[in-house]
């Protein structure tokens, strides 16, 4: 009994496998075409400070969701939002951050941002911090590498780093 497939069936099968392989790899290759990340920066920290914050602008060409973040300078990165309630800044951890196609999402002081917990060392002005952000769009997950510069924003130079006075609620899970 001959169990070999006819050549035409093998050729179709190989073409199908090749197309699937190309489709899967194009999802990874085109990740930067889906979400662009600009103006990434991290606030400097002082000795003994084990919490930091990172900011950037995310723009997606299609609806997507930021689902996870990691960094080389910390053990834990969380997505947070900050709001003012009765004159007090309140911070809240978010499981994900949905991105609407074409709408820039500014992660900035006083709003959405990434919290860096358990810093391995203080973050000094001029250093680079590496991030890996994981997104999901159309049931496909993809990752983006981001390099952020540690810097002091111009507005902080006059208010002694103002953002260190906010309350942290529901963080570090």
Distance between the termini: 61 Å
Which regions contain 5 or more consecutive residues with pLDDT less than 50? 25-29, 157-173
Q: What level of helicity do the residues show?
A: 10-25%
Calculate Rg over CA atoms: 21 Å
- Structural class, please? alpha+beta
Number of helix segments? 2
CATH class: Mainly Beta
CATH superfamily: PCu(A)C copper chaperone
Q: What is the H-and-E element order?
A: HHEEEEEEEEEEE
What count of domains describes the coordinates?
1
Looking at the overall shape, the CATH architecture is Sandwich
Produce a short descriptive summary.
The protein has 2 helices and 11 strands; from the N terminus they run ααβββββββββββ. The protein is of the alpha+beta class and 173 residues long. Strands 1, 2, 3, 4, 5, 6, 7, 8, 9, 10 and 11 form an 11-stranded mixed sheet that branches.
